[in-house]
User: Fold this.
Amino acid sequence: MAEAGVAVAAVVSLGTKSHENKSHDRVGLAWRDALAGGILANLDQIDVIEVIADEYFHAEARRIRALNTLARQVPLYLHGVAMGLASSIAVPPQRLDAMARLVNSVEPEGWSEHLAFVRAGGVEIGHLAAPPRTDEVIDGTLANVAAAAEVIGALPQLENIATLVLPPASTMDESLWIGRIVRASGAPLLLDLHNLYANALNFNQSPSELLARMPLDRVQSVHLSGGVWIDEPVLSGGQPTAKKRLLDDHIHDVPDDVFVLLAELAARAPQPLTVILERDGVYPPFEHLLRQLARAREALAVGRAQMEIEMQMQRAA
Amino acid sequence: MNPFNFSGPAFLLFFIVAILAVNLVLRWWQQRTEANLPMPKLDLSDPYRIAYLRGGAAEALKVTAFALIDRGLLVVDASRDQLTAKPNAEELVRRPIEKSVLSRFRYPAEVTKLFEGAESNAACQQYLRELTDARLLYGSEPKTHRLSSVLSATGVIGGIAGIKLLLAIQRGKSNIMFLVILAVVGIGFAWASMFSRRSGLGLRFLKDQRTLFGRLKKQSKQIRPGGGSADAVILAALFGLTALPASAFPFVKKLFPQPSNSDGGSGCGSTSTSSDGGSSGCGGGGGCGGCGS
Assistant:
């Protein structure tokens, strides 16, 4: 499958109308209708927006045209949520066609999808599920990414997902699994820091160490969000436990620790980063979201300053 | 069925329908052609610029006044036909149009003062320049790129009238006055499109923004006063003040009783080719809804 990865690696750009110099870090917000007014009024503080692509697959032409107009005003990414790339099952062609049509119509700066499986046996499970981290799934994922890049005309950014249970039958850890996929496919990584944080805490790892093991040189974008602690899910035939799990729910504030992770990422990944804050409900006043964006900028600045210091020290040594 | 053989009234009816059809097709063609131009980048964070695009200077000033009232920087007096700026309010705003509106009401004054010299307002002039540069608005000069389509429309209308005139003269008829008048009016409508204010691109931009914010309009009853969010100002800028829930913003109807020009048509003053068109004419009564074309 490495050949397929190399082949699609040639397809790297959407050839869209870029707005801004992408040579610097950017901070933005996921577009939600309830936030639209606030986003519009504060575009001077929002560098980039991300729109859920699936909501527009069957939209009227006027809505898609409106999205195109929005993409001319502010850098815009399309974010898919139900393609199911990380699977040994091929993505249905109609899903690829739908994304291709939307990308062609909206002309976004890029598009992204999750490293998740969402269907099996012809059944859509309506959930971003973590697949077994195996060689077979890597092969399937690479084939799916190659097919998507060919149909859509650009590689997606691939996003790590959160999971409440360790994927059964896995033969490798998350960072190695993701690293192999992004390197073989040539696709950039959309690193969801809250997903990483949740997975680390849920499975007794250090978030910082898990971050360090990720392919940080492949990170192009970052997602920030919040979550809530819930009781550990009871698997079939199991007994309830007193353990808790951190659920990535997108309706709580970004935890302080995740901003620390962002600073650590900015200190280790010299390439420009695009950071997107995701909020899917229980919307606070918009000023509160703007403060979270400001914290993200601060974290990036801290990380960049730290990187600069380390570089100076290396030069001095 | 040759329409040129129709009797006088029947032909005139046919001619009226033809004139309407030609003018509709003309405007559709002009807008379609212009709407397909590349969409420019615009600073969307300024809702007053969008209000200006929608309805001209008076609309931009109305939306600005509304926003300032909602934020408590401009106070409506008990009788609700006078406005007064809060002391030092000008230091709390950053946009030139906000400063301009507040400066007009340093001392209590009637709402009509808002519209005095609307078109020559420096902030509005800046919006006009920006929107004209972005090809979303046109200046007052003739739109020469529309000339070919207008000439085509003129040819169709004039051709129909000419053929009928020729036939009428051949048949010894002399009651051709209505035909000539209709032809002149029809051709005049076609040439009027050479002077319209908003471009097809501008109309598309507004339509697209309204589509994006359609849900905000549907849920407008949930908007609360107090300047806590940008939703009220965005709604007013895109759809006009009438889109705001009257229960939450009762002062709007009192201050601006005439309906906002929210149909995407051009606004007051903007149709004028004079240097100060619409300033006094639109200010009377505190509204501007009827001035557009």
User: Anything to note?
Assistant: The beta strands of chain B are 74-76, 82-85, 109-110. The first strand of chain B starts at residue 74 and ends at 76. The interface with chain A takes residues 38-45, 47, 204-205, 207-209, 211-213, 215-216, 228-231, 233-235 of chain B (CB under 8 Å). The two ends of chain B are 38 Å apart (CA to CA).
